[in-house]
Amino acid sequence: MARNRKYQSAAIRFGPALKAFLLCLLIGGSGVGYVWQKNQIDRLGRQMKQRELRLTDLESQNEKLKKQLATMRNAPWLERRIGIKELNLGLAAPEQSQIWRLPEPLRDGAKPSPERQYAAQDGRPTGP
User: Fold this and answer.
1) How far is CA 68 from CA 58, 73, 77, 112, in A?
2) Cα first-last separation, the chain
3) How far, in Å, CA of 54 to CA of 120, rounded?
4) 72 pLDDT exceeds 80?
5) Cα dist. 9→4, 5, 14, 16, 122 in Å?
6) Per-residue pLDDT at 74
7) Tens-place pLDDT, residues 24-67
8) Cα–chain-centroid distance for residue 75?
9) How many other C-beta atoms lie within 10 A of the C-beta of residue 113?
10) Which of 74, 103, 78, 104 has the alpha carbon at shortest distance from 89?
11) Residues contacting residue 13 through CB under 8 Å, at least 6 positions apart
């Protein structure tokens, strides 16, 4: 004899509804995830574009400042700017005899020892 629906267990009655709910949740979650991911990609693309524009601006500003520095290091520009000739300060470029050129000292570890020089000249291997 067939049983009546009234006597069926709750799991059997709510099983199809639970499956439909989970399927809708999966589809809806996938859709929301897709839209969120597309939004993130769009936002990151805009940030990249802004930073590329900022980099281009900074590079052009850097080139402009390099040119300005080269101009400011120019002796005629310095003479005009400081007003050396206008103020009659008696300043002039130093003569070659007044310039001392000092050699740069070697670091302590870079000084070769006389023994190693002799060994290197002799052709024998050096070291312990």
Assistant:
1) 15, 9, 11, 44
2) 103
3) 55
4) yes
5) 11, 9, 9, 13, 102
6) 85
7) 999 999 999 999 999 999 999 999 999 999 999 999 999 999 99
8) 36
9) 9
10) 78
11) 5
- The tokens describing 64, both together, are 């402009």
Token pair belonging to 120: 């290197």
pLDDT at 105 over 70: yes
3-state secondary structure 89-127: CCCCCCCHHHCCCCCCCCCHHHCCCHHHHHHHHHCCCCC
* Rounded Cα distance, 68 and 64, in Å: 6
Tokens of 63: 């080139």
What proportion of the chain, given as a percentage, has pLDDT over 70?
71
Please, what is the average pLDDT of the chain?
81
- Hunting for tokens 């989970």 — which residue is that? 22
Over its C-alpha atoms, the chain yields an Rg (Å, rounded) of: 41
Q: Note if the pTM is more than 0.70.
A: no
User: Cα separation of 8 and 117, whole Å?
Assistant: 102
